[in-house]
Amino acid sequence: MQSAVSLSARVKSFLAYCRIEKGLAANSLDAYRRDLRRFASSFGPDAAPPDAEAVRIYVDALAPEGLSSRSAARHITTLRNFYGFLLQEGILSTNPTEFLAVPKQWSTIPKYLNLAQIEQLLAAPDPAKPTGLRDRAMLELLFATGLRVSELCRVELTELAQEMGVLRITGKGNKQRIVPVGKSALAAIATYIGNGRPMILRSRGSAHLFVTARGGPMTRQGFWKLIVGYGKQVGIFHNLTPHVLRHSFATHLLEGGADLRSVQTMLGHADIATTQIYTHVLRSRLRKTVDEHHPRA
Q1: Is residue 148 annotated as a catalytic residue, yes or no?
Q2: Is residue 243 flagged as an active site residue?
Q3: pLDDT in tens, 95-110
Q4: Would you say the pTM of this structure is higher than 0.70?
C-alpha cells in the first residue's frame, strides 16, 4: 500500500540509496537524477508514486516527445530500478513497471580504428614537450587496457604495478578489476613519470598519474579535447572520442583470438550482453575460418 510521502521525497531516498549503499558512479547517478526529475515533473513533486496505468501512459509519451529508442530504454531501466527500490522498502506491494515493454534498439557496430590509424594517433603527441609525453602515455594506456575515460583520468600512481605489468582499476559501482598493461604502454608511462610528470607538477604533489599544469588530475573534458585535436592532426576527423579507443582495444583483442568473457572482464562490463556489441568481430572471424578451412568454401 502506498504511503502519503511524496514522489520527490521517494526519488531523493532512492538516489541516496544508489549513492551510499550501491556506490554508483557520479555519471550513473546523474543519469538517474535526470530521468527521475523528468518523471516527477510530469506528475508534480507532491504526487504519490504513480500506478501502473499512469506509468504506462508516461512511457508511451516518451517517443512522441523526441526521445530515441536507446534513451527511452535507459529511462525505463531507471523507472524499473526506482520502483524495485520502493518494492524492496515495502512502500509498494506490486511493481508498476513489471510489464513495461522496452523499445527495440537497432544494434550498431561500434566505431574503431585500424592498426595504422592507432599508430598514427599514438605518434601524434610531441615527445619534446612534458605534456606530449603525458598525452602519449595516456593514449598508449587507453589502447592497451580499454579503460573508460573517467577511469583513465582517475588512475593513481599506487594503482599501477609497473614491475608486474598490471593496473588496479575502480570502475562503475566501485567494482575493482585488475587489467594487464602491455610493454609499449608501460614504457611510455615510465618515460612520462621520469621526464614529463615532474616538469608539469613543478615540485607540487599529486596522487594522480596523469596531471595538468595546475597540479590537478586530467579531466574527462580536457582529454576529450586533446584526442580530438590529435585526431585532426593525423587526419582522423570524424567522431573520434576516447570511447573509440576503448572499442578499438576490444575489437583488436577479439580479432587476435581473445574470448568474449575475457574481454568482458577487462572492459569491466557487469553483463556480457553489453560486451556482445562486439560480436561483429566474431562473425567476421567465423567467415574467415570457413573460407580458410572448409574444403568447398
Answers
A1: yes
A2: yes
A3: 888 887 766 554 555 6
A4: no
